[in-house]
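the four lines:
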Amino acid sequence: MEDQEIRNAGLKVTAPRVKILELLENSQQRHVSAEDVYRMLLAADQDIGLATVYRVLTQFEEAGLVEKHHFEDGHSVFELDKGKHHDHIVCVTCGRVKEFVDETIEERQQKIADELGFQISEHDLVIYGKCLDDECDRKG
Amino acid sequence: MEDQEIRNAGLKVTAPRVKILELLENSQQRHVSAEDVYRMLLAADQDIGLATVYRVLTQFEEAGLVEKHHFEDGHSVFELDKGKHHDHIVCVTCGRVKEFVDETIEERQQKIADELGFQISEHDLVIYGKCLDDECDRKG
DNA sequence: CCAATAGATGAGAAGCTTTTGCATTCAATC
DNA sequence: GATTGAATGCAAAAGCTTCTCATCTATTGG
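prediction for all of em together
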């Protein structure tokens, strides 16, 4: 369970860390901001400070448990690292996020980095667009 | 010259706007932050406030004169829009930025958006890595 | 060329997200 | 159960960016 993941990360098993990890695992949204997590904790009657949420998420990121992404609106979102890399497509109207992986793109990136003399550590491909979802149309 | 570009954008031709546009056109770095612009203005004995720099850059962005990018460190950088789209590869050690365009990637993105039901408005592909430049190695 | 006016500016305050300092509390260890 | 270094909560602080508002200016028409 969560305890072990936390322990493996070299962190003490504390209530905030367990709760936050549970939250991430059970959350409907895969991409949540620190603020989102904080609000969910409040809603679950957990008395955990926002500073702790940031600290814990950062530690989780360092431990490779979660990934941090910077979308356009300025603040960061976190998602559980399920091990497999993927990119994102974000709806500019409703904020919906979908994930995808494209081997061709991955290969081309590698090729480009080679040509330009870079050793890739990571990359972030985000496509912004308008999704053609019914619900979205109503909002836009 | 710059005056006309500014006028075409529907903006009054004022000293701050002309100076900022000149700066962007003559700058060695293609990617500058608002703070960078502000410092360059100070260095050129221009008495222009930071708020104005932000306002002007935002207006230039709306007018399509510059593009705004969000790299990982939180703050935004602006670059003159030379009309042709390109992506970025950023060195995590020395901060160097190179640009590239890859038609295959562009096509695949379009295909992915189609499949997922999105109408692309824009995208941001940033590869992070370590460049193999001599100068960079010394720093890292 | 001057007057009128809508828009632009500068300075500082305010807003947001994120980080930090510090006294208190707690998990791990013996 | 006592010890101890790590973790927490709160409030304060720190970036970056936006806003407020009084002052100033580019544009326009007379």
